[in-house]
Design a protein that fits this description.
- With 239 residues, this protein is an alpha/beta fold.
- The protein has a single domain, classed as 3-Layer(aba) Sandwich (Rossmann fold).
- The chain is 42% helix and 15% strand.
- Helix 2 links the parallel strand 2 and strand 3.
- Helix 3 runs parallel beside helix 4 and helix 4 runs parallel beside helix 5.
- The longest helix has 29 residues.
- It is globular, with a radius of gyration of 17 Å.
- The relative contact order is 0.14.
Length: 239
């Protein structure tokens, strides 16, 4: 009898911001599909615990996406450990929310440096390895990348910019066999902005839903690219 293997057997993935929430569930799904996975976070205890929880060929690495040198070292170590790179999931992000008058320079800088510059640094570090055997880049954006809201100056700007970067990446990389998809969720039950998921979040998109979407996109025919995916709760509470 022929032994069945998962679609990710012999492949590897690198996921940023993966100690909890969407990043953790995406990494868990990829590992379950057979991928060797590196996950990153700024907190050593959290990322080590997440790697143990996922199991399999999962490496937990402390890395701040605002540091391009640290990211390059982490990606290089991943390639050295697993022989290449097939999936890059750009997930690390944060938010500070205030009207522009009250938003501090430090808050603006942290959001832009993490959500936009950090995404650029992550992709920049991974492109050479992805080009060697083709692959897939996912950028975790938001519906806030097309729908501005009061108090969202820094966050909206970072996600609008991330969407633009993602679209350019598609044009720059598709002839190298690299797909790029920007995933734009609405309300997700995560730990974002200090929130702790609870039973009242049942109506929201769940992190495992984004993980399932990621696997579905990876299973698409090579000839087809869903380049922008907007994801909404199917039945939000009535206002």
């Amino acid at each position: 009898m022929t032994q069945q293997t998962g679609p990710g057997e012999g492949k590897s993935a690198f996921v940023t911001g993966a100690s909890k929430g969407i990043g953790l569930e995406v990494a868990r799904a990829l590992a379950g599909a057979g991928y060797a996975v590196t996950i990153t976070s700024r907190k050593q205890d959290e990322i080590e615990a997440a790697a143990r929880e996922i199991g399999g060929q999962t490496r937990g690495v402390v890395c701040d996406v605002r540091d391009p040198q640290a990211l390059q070292q982490a990606v290089d170590a991943h390639v050295g450990a697993f022989g290449g790179l097939d999936v890059l999931f750009v997930n690390a992000g944060l938010g500070h929310f205030a009207n522009v008058e009250d938003l501090t320079l430090e808050q603006w800088q942290e959001v832009i440096d993490t959500n936009l510059s950090g995404a650029f640094y992550t992709v920049k570090a991974g492109i050479p390895a992805l080009k060697r055997r083709g692959g897939y880049i996912f950028t975790l954006s938001s519906l806030a990348g097309k729908n501005p809201f009061a108090g969202g100056g820094a966050y909206n700007a970072s996600k609008f910019g991330l969407n633009g970067l993602s679209e350019v990446l598609t044009l720059d990389l598709r002839q190298h066999g690299i797909k790029v998809t920007q995933i734009m969720p609405g309300s997700v039950a995560t730990y974002f902005n200090g929130h702790t998921p609870n039973e009242q979040d049942a109506w929201k998109i769940q992190p495992e839903d984004i993980a399932q979407l990621t696997l579905d996109l990876l299973a698409m025919p090579e000839r087809t690219l869903p380049s922008r995916i907007e994801v909404r709760p199917s039945r939000p509470p009535q206002k």
